Structure formats: C-alpha cells, structure tokens
Amino acid sequence: MKKILSLTTVLAICGSFLYAQNAVDLKVQLDNASGKISPHMWGIFFEDINLGADGGIYAELVKNRSFEFDHPMMGWKRLENVPEGTFLIINDSRRKGNARSLKIHKPTDFKTGLQNEGFRGMGVKKGDGYEFSLLYRQASPGIRIKVELLNEQDQVIGTAALPLSQGANWQTGSVTFTSAETSPKGKLNIWFEGAGDVEVDMLSLFPQDTWKNRPKGLRKDMVQILADMEPDFVRFPGGCIVEGRDLATRFQWKKTVGPIEERELIINRWNTEFSHRLTPDYFQTFGLGFYEYFLLSEDIGAEPVPILNCGMACQFNTGEVVPLDELDEYIQDALDLIEFANGDIHTPWGKLRAEMGHPAPFNLKMLGVGNENWGPQYIERLAIFQKILQEKHPEIQIIASSGTDPNGERFDYLDEKLRDMKVDIIDEHYYRPPAWFLSGADRYDDYDRNGPKIFAGEYASHTTRPQGPGRSTWEAALSEAAFLTGLERNGDVVTMASYAPLFGHVDGWQWSPDLIWVDNLNVYGTPSYHVQKLYSLNKGTDIIPVKLGDQNVVGQDSLYASAVYDADTKELIVKFVNYNEQSVEANFQLDTKKKIKGNATKITLANADLNVVNSLEEPLRIKPQTEQVNYKGKAIKDTFPPYSFTVIKIPVQ
C-alpha cells in the first residue's frame, strides 16, 4: 500500500523552522466521531531478549540450575581442591526434558562445594527472605547441605542448613533464610558436608517476595511496571525466538508447560546473534512458559496473544522450512494450544491447564501464525493454517505477518496476498529513525476500512545515539508520540500496537533501544514507556477528528494531534505533540452541543533537550507532570512547551 506524502508532512521532517508565529487554530469535532477505538488498542510485546526472562522477570537467581547448558558447569565454580571424580555430570535420557544431574562423590568428609555466579550477579535485598531448593537422591544418609549468600566482597550475608533424607527416588528439599544486606551482585555457595554419595539437580534460589507471592514466581517490580500501563494485551513469546535460528531451536510451547523440572531447555537465539554482544550463557529454561504467560496476561487484565511457529525458521539465519506435507505437527500445536487455553478440563490439554492450577479457561481470542516471515513459502503455509483454524475454531482471529519492513517489495507482496486471503489482522513492524515516524503520522489515514485490521506489532524509533540504555532518548519517544496520534486517529483500522523490545538489562542487553531498563534490583521506564503509558491510560472509546483547516494534524508546523471520547468516564481526551524548539500557542475549538463542565486535567511530557534519557541514576528525568486547569467555555487556549507531548482530559456532560 504505497502512499504519497503531503507537502506539509514532508516539510515537518525538516524540523522546527516552520514554527507558527501566531496561535494555531484547531477544531475538535466532538459531535462527529469517525469510528470506535479498538478495545485492545495498546499492549505490550514480550520476548526473552536482553535477559528479559531468565535473569529478568523470571525471578530465579541461579544460572544453569539443572546443568543443561552446552557447557554443563557454566555459571558454576568448584570450591576447594578436591580429588578427581568428586563431581560427575550424569546424563540420564530416561528423565523427561532434563537429562543431566550432578553426582557428588565423597568417600570421606573433606570440604567441598560449588559457587553460582547468578545472572550478572544475584540481586538480593536486606531483610528479604530467600528460598533455596533442589532435587536430590542419595541411597544412604551421609550428605547435608549448607548454603551461603555472599555480597560483592565475598562476605557471608545469609546462611542456612539443609539435611538430606535417604531414598532411591528423586525428592525435593528446601530451606529459607534472610539476607542481612542489600547486594546487587551477590553469589551463592553450596557446601556439601559429611561423607557419602548424592545426586542433585534443579539447584535454585528464589526471593519469597515475588509477584502475588507465588512460590518460584516472577520478579515483582518488573511485573508491576507492566501492570501500571494497564495494557490491553500481552503478545508472547516474541519475536524472533518463535522462529529460532533453525527449526530445531524454534519455540515449542508444549515443552514449556507441565512440571518445571521436566521442561526442556534450549539455547536462546540471541546467544550468538550479535558479534558485538556475544552472550554465550543465554539459554531458555522455560520457567516462564506458556502457562505463566497466560497467567501474567490475566493478572494484569490483558488479552493473551500467543504467536506460533508456522514451519519456518528465521529467514535471516538458516531459512529452514518444513515440507508442506509435514506441516501437520505445527498445525496440531496451534489446535492443542487453543485447547490448552480454552478447552474443558476433561480434554487432554484443558486437563493439564487445570492440573497446573487454572481450571477456568484463559479465554484466548487471537493467535499469531508466524513472526516476520515473508515470501510465497510463508503464504502457502499460512493458507493451510488458515483453512484448518477457520474450520475448527472460527472464533479465533488469525494474526499474519507482513514481514520485516513497513514498505518495499517484500511488504507490498505480503500486503496484497494477505488482503486477498482476508486474514483477520496484519502484523506490521517498523524500526526506523525519528524522521520516519514524524513523516508517517498519516500512514493509516487512507487504509481500507473494510479490509483486515492492523497490528503495529513491533515499533521503536531508533536514533543515532550509541547502543545501550542511552539510546532510549526523548527524541525517539517524542517522534513515537507524534506517530501514535496517527494510530489513535485510525483506531478503527489499527486494532493493536506494542513497542518492542520490552525489557533491557543494563549488564546483559543485545538490542537497544528498549521500553524498560533494569538491573538486578531496579527498574525504570524510558521516555518511550511514559509515552505509550499515556496512550494506554487515556484510550477512550470513540475517535474524534481534530482538524487544522480541513486537514488532519499530521506535521503542519511540526504539530501533531488526535482526540478520543471516553463514553465510560464522559471525557474528551486530546493528545497534542509540539515538535518545535519554541513554545506553541494553540486554540482548540470544541465543536459540540454537549456541555463542558469542571476543571480539566493536563498531563505533560517535555524537555528542550531531545538527547535526554532516563537512567538508573535519574529514572524520572522525563516523567509526566500533571496539573488541573480551568478552560473557559468551548475554547481551549493554552501554550505548549518546546518538544512536548500533552494529554488534556476535559469532562463533558
């Protein structure tokens, strides 16, 4: 779908020299709504990149807890000099999903132990409780365990003892203790005391203070910052990890459900993807699996939006495809996932969901088939999925990929084919510089209202700043705010939107910019986070046209605007971007027979320096400023600061 940009839109890219010397007059057509806003407009995109899951939101502190990494002892260090044969890696193929374990052989009571380094250290807090647990078996009694939590100076800040019982079968042991200090980069010592033989696995350390206090659950502050957005949906598990570098390492949801100790670890595709950020210790343990993704979505009031492999590996890597006559396994995965999410507890997969603790269905409504796939090979596989899913589950909307780019030959081919197929939702992705976002605010103004809906599934403005947390600038966020006015104005066509990637660990990132940055103890939202949060918290139900003359406000004088009416709160919500280096005075004339009542609320994000970022040291350098204002009658006259994004909420009777 090619577009010719208007002259005003093109000139808006050039910057603030078009600053309007006189007040800008805008008309808000409150009594002439142009459509309905999607009920799931603003959401979040989750992928295990940048230590987003393991080492991030999944609160496990021990790295390589089950010795399943390519190097079984990665993350571990042997303590003390011990005889050869004291430690032995056992590979037992009879154990489902988790074949390896560690055998400790101590014919006499010499001192020996292991130390785990965690994920760039272990973040622990003073006064908080921690649970150490493991699986073990020992044929005869003799070995007991002592655990020690260490700070960066190798001083013991927490300790506990754990006796081990006798038994030929695997059993669970656990003990809790309290940290005496806060340490962002702690370590864990595990001492094996006494004499004898013992086999151990799933050596684990979790904070007790997790999200909703669930044992072995999610990191509380990282979930909370998502819940604060009140997202409409959660897309999971990605992203390129859905595809895998090859089909053997694709994401297979069935291996991520059931007992934790039986989930089959695989390498994370971001392990070696970027030569400048090699991460050889990056694997997926799937402690955060599809059940947990569904539960997270439910917890924060969001629709679950899973994406499944369509029989194609990443086309930038191997480009492997499964033969069409062997696609049944992949389609069955989709059918079984719908049963897992929505099925009765007497169905096989519904029964598993109930056994995991959730008898009620998760009410799945949408399902993605493929991620950033393209070409005829994608279309022919998608068509098979579509036919079977429409026959067996017409209630499920199918999300299809438009490839990696928002324009060009690849995009044009897919856009035409997907519209011919009448897919429900087309997933468009755009990682582009700020100028692209500024010039694209009118992208969807002329899209077919009767065709497929659009999912802006991955978007982020990429500046030329150096990689890392410093790339998440106000310039990027403000250009996104301008672009999002176009998504909101076309909320009857653009049914979903989510920034990507979601999380970045300051010590373990592979990709930037990111919406939210963390270290082992702290979390903060970037300027882009605050922009999308303002859209998400101020969504409305009806699209209200905002006009400059007879045109939409899409860059004229570097200004952008959209508006919605919220029928539930009875508020008009105006969003206004001033992408100028000077203040701008604007007059909004409310074209309505309704009565305007009471004070309005004005929320502003602004900074005259486009290179400003939030950081661990200054997490709220860019943050919303809220004030109550009293506008007279049906004319809103106000001055908007340089480089600002403003939300105005006006009560309407």
UniProtKB/TrEMBL annotation:
<dbReference type="GO" id="GO:0046373">
    <property type="term" value="P:L-arabinose metabolic process"/>
</dbReference>
<dbReference type="InterPro" id="IPR010720">
    <property type="entry name" value="Alpha-L-AF_C"/>
</dbReference>
<dbReference type="InterPro" id="IPR003305">
    <property type="entry name" value="CenC_carb-bd"/>
</dbReference>
<protein>
    <recommendedName>
        <fullName>non-reducing end alpha-L-arabinofuranosidase</fullName>
        <ecNumber>3.2.1.55</ecNumber>
    </recommendedName>
</protein>
<keyword id="KW-0325">Glycoprotein</keyword>
<dbReference type="InterPro" id="IPR013780">
    <property type="entry name" value="Glyco_hydro_b"/>
</dbReference>
<feature type="signal peptide">
    <location>
        <begin position="1"/>
        <end position="22"/>
    </location>
</feature>
<dbReference type="InterPro" id="IPR017853">
    <property type="entry name" value="GH"/>
</dbReference>
<dbReference type="Pfam" id="PF02018">
    <property type="entry name" value="CBM_4_9"/>
</dbReference>
<dbReference type="Pfam" id="PF22848">
    <property type="entry name" value="ASD1_dom"/>
</dbReference>
<dbReference type="GO" id="GO:0046556">
    <property type="term" value="F:alpha-L-arabinofuranosidase activity"/>
</dbReference>
<feature type="domain" description="Alpha-L-arabinofuranosidase C-terminal">
    <location>
        <begin position="457"/>
        <end position="644"/>
    </location>
</feature>
<dbReference type="InterPro" id="IPR051563">
    <property type="entry name" value="Glycosyl_Hydrolase_51"/>
</dbReference>
<keyword id="KW-0732">Signal</keyword>
<comment type="similarity">
    <text>Belongs to the glycosyl hydrolase 51 family.</text>
</comment>
<keyword id="KW-0378">Hydrolase</keyword>
<dbReference type="InterPro" id="IPR008979">
    <property type="entry name" value="Galactose-bd-like_sf"/>
</dbReference>
<dbReference type="InterPro" id="IPR055235">
    <property type="entry name" value="ASD1_cat"/>
</dbReference>
<dbReference type="Pfam" id="PF06964">
    <property type="entry name" value="Alpha-L-AF_C"/>
</dbReference>
